[in-house]
Amino acid sequence: MTAETLEAPSATAPAGAPPHPLREFWSYFSANRGAVAGLVVIVLVLLAAVFAEVLAPHSPYLTNNAVFLKPPAWQEGGSWSYPLGTDAIGRDILSRLLYGARLSLVIGIAVVALAMALGIVLGLVAGFFKGVTEIVIMRLMDIVLTMPSLLLAIVIVAILGPGLMNAMLAVAIVVLPHYVRITRAAVIAETSKDYVVAAKVSGAGTLRLMFSEVLPNCTAPLIVQATLGVSTAILDAAALGFLGLGAQPPTPEWGTMLADAREFVLRAWWVVTLPGLAILITVLAFNLLGDGLRDALDPKLKR
Amino acid sequence: MPLLEIENLSVEFPTSAGTLKAVDRISLTLDEGEILGVVGESGSGKSVTMLALMGLVAYPGKITADRLMFGGRDLLAMSDRERRKLTGKDVAMIFQEPSTSLNPCFTIGFQIAETLRKHEGMDGKAARRRAIELLEQVGIPAPESRMKAYPHQLSGGMNQRVMIAMAIACNPRLLIADEPTTALDVTIQAQILDLLISLQRERDMALVLITHNMGVVAETAQRIMVMYAGQIMEERNVASLFAAPQHPYSAALLAALPERSEGEHRLATIPGMVPGLHDRPKGCLFSPRCAYATDHSRLVQPELRPWQDGQIRCHYPLGDPQRDALRAAGGNRLAAPETTP
Amino acid sequence: MLRFILTRVSLVIPTFIGITMLAFFLIRLVPGDPIETMAGERGIDATRHEMLRKELGLDQPLLVQYGIYIGRVLHGDLGKSIVTRESVISEFNALFPATIELALCAIFIALAIGLPAGIIAAVKRNSIFDHGVMGLSLTGYSMPIFWWGLLLILLFSVQLGITPVSGRIAVQYYIEPVTGFLTVDSLLAGDWDAFKSALSHLVLPSIVLGTVPLAVIARMTRSAMLEVLGEDYIRTARAKGMAPFRVVALHALRNALIPVITVIGLQVGVLFTGAILTETIFSWPGIGKWLIEAISRRDYPILQGGTLLIGVVVMSVNLFVDLLYGLINPRIRHAR
């Protein structure tokens, strides 16, 4: 009985088992309305991209001589067979936007995947093999970071030749330093910790250490960077498309669509407004999601 | 007339998990030139009480009080602007971390002179002269050259002296020192305390010394206030409390002092932790850790009441002659007060 | 302090070498023979080809070629435009002020709105204003500015007709360049109408170019202020009885500006990126448009020289900001 009264209150308190990490993450994440909105929009864009064939009323390439610059359905002169109107050569804008969603997501994900794969390897190498290797890699990344991102991408595309593939490669190179830096910083922080030292002492090889011990511990910042990176990639690829250096017409890429629409800015607001709106909404959604993920994954901000 | 009168001061913070009562119905009076020691574990509300008095509790925190008088003036009825004329002038405060409490972007000369310019209406030159005097008074060597120094160029002890100089700049009637020596080296601690005490004597200002060091209180203060979980447990004269603590918590704190543990092999400790937001007991807040708790004290919270030469919040003060009878009536399931085996 | 400056300046040297290497080797990657590329579609005969190869040093080993290139760069020789036969440097110098004028206006707009918005958002944390600022700034940050420019043209030039669509100044004005900034030069010339014209041409492009920096500055200012407002010395300032405005505008802001200035410095790269797009949309005769045109004309010396020059400009601004950072942060200023 003595023990009972002297027991620490914390022990008698109804302390349930700590929540599952994923569950805890979700409770932080779902409290952030912006991030949830971003996620919803991304899912919608994803659905639009996957089911573009089903959803699109027309082929994105099909031109129709009868309907040049037809306004959206709700405006005078519009018709429901072209809900968002048509462009200068009679293509259905809605269909092009839907296929454009597919293209933009592919661009964003492919660019980030490429940059991340390369960045992780370079970052691990720089972090583990110190010395000249590290200096060379990090200096190169500094130089890439010094150059204005779009300028560097433009120069790369100008040299490799315009086109979607080259544009994606250029953007991947431009965003590479972020992933290298994150991975290297994580490696340096983690290798000084006890569990890595322990693994080393117990004879784990460098490669094993790199991928099985250290890498899982820098996934959180990488996930955040990757999410934000998708938005950068979409934005930069669209900018290159707009400058005529990215996807080439008649590809229904949003930036390229805007470039085509430029000269009609005085006559047809919809050909200019809609593709840009699509870019803005998608990029904003990824940024919202990225911010939300960062807040939910960053233990420093947890209270 | 007492310098400071506080009646039922409470401070609450709304959090996502519920309302946190950081300070719970504190009542206190303080005379001119008196030294009050405030002791208690971290999180017991010592600092928040004083911050509330200074008007420094930030936005979501809510302050309520029946009465809050300083020098005969009603702090509750004052506008913020009037209140600011008082804080920093008549009531000043120094903090635990001297090095982060000074602004890293400004010279210490500027930071002292700023107070003088604001409250004494001095021009730049006069404020500078006075600031040098003040630095001299708090024992900073070569004060003139130190005026241009930035906080990061001085040691922690020096920075605390600067903080003290800043606090006494306008001859305050009350100085609140919030654990002024905790962050400093042991050798510096005594110097800073001596400085505070001698300044207090010279100027006859009241001093509130927040600390978790009972020894410091014994040496310096006239009165002592023991706080626990936002409440006053016991508040009495230092000598009488040290001679015969009335609250089991005060007694336990004293028993934990190394200099009091004569002949014993291990220092006495108080088992358990200060209750948090969720495990706040229904009755006496100390009951889960109290060796003398009864069913009654676990269910009914004792009121703060006058006791001997001060006040206490306890059903069964140690010096109460009817104590055993009261405890027996309170449904005592315990045979004897023992510490954990 | 001197040591701090010297370290920072010396750190720039490898970056500079890197930029020259980038400019040099990237152009080597162009598929095909550089001389034939330069000659264009008209072709070139074998003897002249050989002559040019010698003249341009293309028969030397690559490293020697790079050495020669560095030597020329250090003497200020960045080659000549294939199209206009003008030297790259002189073309750059002629167009650079237009970009600077635009960029300065853009950063001014970004600071004038972004700093106060960020400060107020931090002070009134979680208020409607705060949420509004954060939402708008994330939108600005996500903005495809080439579209944003078109949208503003659609609204202000086409619908409302209050701003011109393109260029720096109406065609009827000729202003002798002194500073190269048309707004300043027109005032120096005392031509009030020309000034108004130049200013009206400047408004939309500056807004477009300033949007992303504005968003970044507002967000950064807010988070820096939030962090500083929780510091002990803010409590001290309030304990001294300082008015809330003085606490925020002096004690907090002075500290919060340190990270914000770094971010402003990093916006220089963003500004050049934006300038390329903004100048293209508004036909603004600056270096962004110049580079894009060089690409479509396959004018590689301009592309090479322009890249190098912009790289050096960004690097210098970053260095300058770095030094400024040391100047406003006493902890660095007094570090030995």
Short description:
Chain B is 33% helix and 21% strand. With 341 residues, chain B is an alpha/beta fold.
Helices and strands in order, then pairings?
The complex is a heterotrimer of chains A (303), B (341) and C (336).
Chain A: H1 2-6, H2 9-12, H3 21-30, H4 33-50, H5 52-55, H6 93-128, H7 132-146, H8 149-160, H9 164-191, H10 194-201, H11 206-214, H12 219-242, H13 254-261, H14 269-297
Chain B: E1 4-15, E2 18-30, E3 35-39, H1 46-54, E4 62-64, E5 67-70, E6 73-74, H2 80-86, E7 91-94, H3 98-101, H4 108-120, H5 124-137, H6 143-146, H7 156-167, E8 174-178, H8 186-203, E9 206-210, H9 214-220, E10 223-228, E11 231-237, H10 238-243, H11 248-255, H12 295-299, E12 305-307, E13 310-312, H13 323-329
Parallel strand pairs in B: 3-9, 3-10, 7-8, 8-9
Antiparallel strand pairs in B: 1-2, 1-4, 1-5, 5-6, 10-11, 11-13, 12-13
Helix pairs in contact in B: 4-5, 4-7, 5-7, 7-8
Chain C: H1 2-28, H2 34-39, H3 46-55, H4 62-74, H5 88-123, H6 128-141, H7 145-159, H8 182-188, H9 192-229, H10 232-239, H11 244-282, H12 287-296, H13 300-328, H14 330-333
Helix pairs in contact in C: 1-4, 1-13, 5-6, 5-9, 5-11, 6-9, 7-9, 7-11, 8-9, 9-11, 10-11, 11-12, 11-13, 12-13
Q: Termini separation of chain C (Å)? A: 7 Å
> What general form of chain C does the structure show?
globular
**Helix and strand run of chain B:** EEEHEEEHEHHHHHEHEHEEHHHEEH
**Most extensive chain-chain interface:** A-C, 45 and 45 residues
The major pleated sheet of chain B works out as: 8 strands, mixed
% residues in beta strands of chain C: under 5%
Q: Report the oligomer.
A: heterotrimer
Count of alpha and pi helical runs of chain C? 14
Helix fraction of chain C? Answer: over 70%
Number of strands of chain C: 0
Strand content of chain B: 15-25%
Poorly predicted segments of chain C: none
| Overall pLDDT confidence of chain B | 88
**Structural class computed from helices and strand pairing of chain C:** mainly alpha
Strand order of the largest sheet of chain B: 7-8-9-3-10-11-13-12
In the predicted model, the low-confidence regions of chain B spanning at least 5 consecutive residues are 334-341
Total strand segments of chain B: 13
The N- and C-terminal alpha carbons of chain B lie at a distance of: 50 Å
Give your account of this protein's structure.
The complex is a heterotrimer of chains A (about 300), B (about 350) and C (about 325). Chain A is mainly alpha-helical. Chain A has a single domain (about 25-60, about 65-300), classed as MetI-like (MetI-like fold), CATH 1.10.3720.10. Chain A is built from 14 helices and no strands. Chain A has helices at about 1-5, 10, 20-30, 35-50, 50-55, 95-130, 130-145, 150-160, 165-190, 195-200, 205-215, 220-240, 255-260, 270-295. In chain A, helix 4 packs across helix 14 (about 270-295), helix 6 (about 95-130) packs across helix 12 (about 220-240) and helix 8 (about 150-160) crosses helix 9 (about 165-190). Chain A is elongated. With about 350 residues, chain B is α/β, with parallel strands linked by helices. Chain B has a domain at about 235-335. Chain B has 13 helices and 13 strands. In chain B, the strands form 2 sheets. An 8-stranded mixed beta sheet of chain B has the order 7-8-9-3-10-11-13-12, with helices on both faces. In chain B, helix 4 crosses helix 5 (about 125-135) and helix 4 (about 110-120) packs parallel to helix 7 (about 155-165). Chain B is globular, with a radius of gyration of 22 Å. Chain B starts with a strand and ends in a 12-residue tail after the last helix. Chain C is an all-alpha fold. Chain C has one domain (about 90-335): MetI-like fold, CATH 1.10.3720. In chain C, about 75% of the residues lie in helices and about 0% in strands. Chain C is globular, with a radius of gyration of 24 Å. The mean pLDDT of chain C is about 85. Chains in contact: A-B, A-C, B-C. Chains B and C meet through helix 2 and helix 4 of B and helix 10 and helix 11 of C. Chain C: Keywords: Cell membrane, Membrane, Transmembrane, Transmembrane helix, Transport. Chain C: GO terms for molecular function: dipeptide transmembrane transporter activity. Chain C: It is a multi-pass membrane protein. Chain C: It is found in: Cell membrane. Chain C: Belongs to the binding-protein-dependent transport system permease family.
